[in-house]
């Protein structure tokens, strides 16, 4: 039961909050062994709903791609057509994306999922799943990868490859979303994708996948029996292909969101904060999270940047008083911040910036992280139309 509550909590957390976390982008660009810019996003399964470039944030909402200028903090649909009204029903608008599950900035080009259909010689509708790219200004859309065999649910790009969580199409045209596997294909290469990581067992929830240098981390929960779940925390060495389930050797298994901070893996278990090395060794308890902020039911590591680690503290079934515990590199509290938002679709952080969507109020906020905890640290910068 406890595990079930934890899963519900995690799912609610991930579904309601997608936080971007990153090192300083320039550090990332200068040191290819570290995080890709896409790793600034934590998303349910693998979806990255925020991308960032040197000058802008990009995010998808209601099938539209928006861009926020970091300097002016002006937000608008990413469309350069002079007479366009950016109507939701207007497929000619540059900002309209057919599948609105994510956007990735890879080498200063924006990648996203798309789909097209055609009728084969028997009149049957064939669905083509596509990964497309375009320039940072929204122009020059082109297809990068097409498949009629796979339903692509989400993707990331890393070191020259597209990694896709996908399911094969059945003969009846359906695809089983609870049996996804990880496929990959070199960027720009046509043909079939390689089955890179196959899930065994009865089905999995895919909680988080992220890359760090030549390592890939993949947290899944497998349905076992009697409503029980088995959490796997995979590390894949991309240089050798070797796979390790770190939860088999960790004293305290990872069953919750995690983050990579100061080249260590940070996670919580039962209200306590832990760290371990990138290979799962040198595990140690850092603190009881209740010493930072007491009386919460759940504490989850949700985000970090090069300076700050964010722990999300919530009550069971009540996200109204969601609180962030913000720690510095020595795990000393910088602030404990009760969020002024009821529900959060996602937020992002880069450098000292962060953006947050309050989906209930349809509002977009900019947060100055250096002012976290002050009353004026969140600034309303955009209100979405219905
Ligand atoms: Zn438009």
Low-confidence stretches: 1-33
Helix content: under 10%
Order of helices and strands: HHEEEEEEEEEEEEEEEEEEEEEEEEEEEE
Major sheet details? 4 strands, antiparallel
Principal-axis shape: globular
Which class in CATH terms? Mainly Beta
Radius of gyration: 20 Å
Mean pLDDT: 82
CATH superfamily name?
A: Prolyl oligopeptidase, N-terminal domain
β-strand amount: over 45%
How many domain regions?
1
Helix/strand class? mainly beta
Q: Number of DSSP helices?
A: 2
Spatial separation of the terminal alpha carbons: 39 Å
Overview of this protein structure:
The structure is a single chain. It is built from two helices and 28 strands. By secondary structure, it is mainly beta. It has a single domain (2-383), classed as Methylamine Dehydrogenase, Chain H (7 Propeller). It has a four-stranded antiparallel beta sheet, with no helix packed on it. β5 (103-106) and β6 (109-119) form a beta hairpin. The longest helix is centred in the first third of the chain and has 15 residues, at 2-16. Bound molecules: zinc ion (ZN). Zinc ion binds next to loops. Residues 77, 79, 81, 84, 86, 93-95 line the site of zinc ion (ZN).
């Amino acid at each position: 039961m406890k595990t079930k509550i934890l899963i519900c909590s995690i799912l609610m957390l991930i579904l309601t909050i997608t936080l971007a976390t990153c090192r300083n982008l320039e550090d990332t660009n200068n040191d290819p062994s570290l995080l890709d810019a896409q790793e600034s996003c934590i998303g349910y399964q693998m979806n990255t709903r925020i991308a960032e470039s040197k000058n802008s944030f990009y995010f998808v909402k209601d099938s539209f791609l928006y861009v926020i200028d970091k300097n002016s903090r002006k937000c608008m649909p990413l469309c350069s057509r002079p007479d366009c009204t950016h109507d939701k029903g207007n497929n000619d608008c540059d900002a309209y994306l057919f599948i609105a599950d994510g956007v990735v900035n890879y080498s200063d080009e924006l990648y996203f999922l798309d789909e097209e259909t055609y009728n084969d010689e028997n009149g049957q509708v064939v669905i083509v799943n596509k990964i497309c790219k375009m320039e940072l200004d929204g122009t020059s859309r082109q297809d990068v990868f097409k498949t009629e065999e796979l339903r692509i649910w989400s993707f990331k790009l890393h070191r020259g490859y597209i990694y896709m969580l996908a399911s094969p199409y059945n003969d009846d045209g359906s695809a089983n979303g609870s049996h996804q596997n990880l496929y990959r294909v070199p960027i720009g290469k046509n043909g079939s994708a390689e089955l890179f990581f196959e899930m065994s067992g009865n089905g999995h929830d895919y909680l988080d996948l992220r890359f760090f240098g030549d390592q890939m981390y993949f947290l899944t929960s497998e349905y076992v029996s009697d409503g029980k779940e088995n959490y796997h925390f995979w590390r894949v060495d991309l240089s050798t292909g070797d796979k390790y389930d770190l939860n088999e050797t960790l004293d305290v298994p990872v069953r919750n969101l995690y983050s990579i901070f100061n080249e260590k893996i940070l996670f919580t278990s039962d209200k306590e904060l832990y760290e371990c090395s990138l290979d799962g060794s040198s595990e140690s308890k850092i603190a009881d999270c209740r010493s930072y902020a007491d009386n919460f039911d759940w504490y989850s590591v949700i985000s970090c940047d090069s300076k700050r680690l964010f722990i999300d503290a919530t009550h069971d079934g009540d996200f109204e008083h969601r609180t962030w515990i913000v720690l510095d590199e020595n795990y000393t509290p910088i602030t404990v911040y009760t969020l002024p938002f009821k529900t959060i679709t996602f937020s992002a952080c880069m450098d000292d910036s962060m953006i947050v969507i309050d989906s209930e109020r349809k509002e977009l906020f900019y947060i100055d992280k250096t002012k976290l905890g002050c009353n004026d640290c969140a600034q309303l910068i955009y209100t979405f139309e219905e």
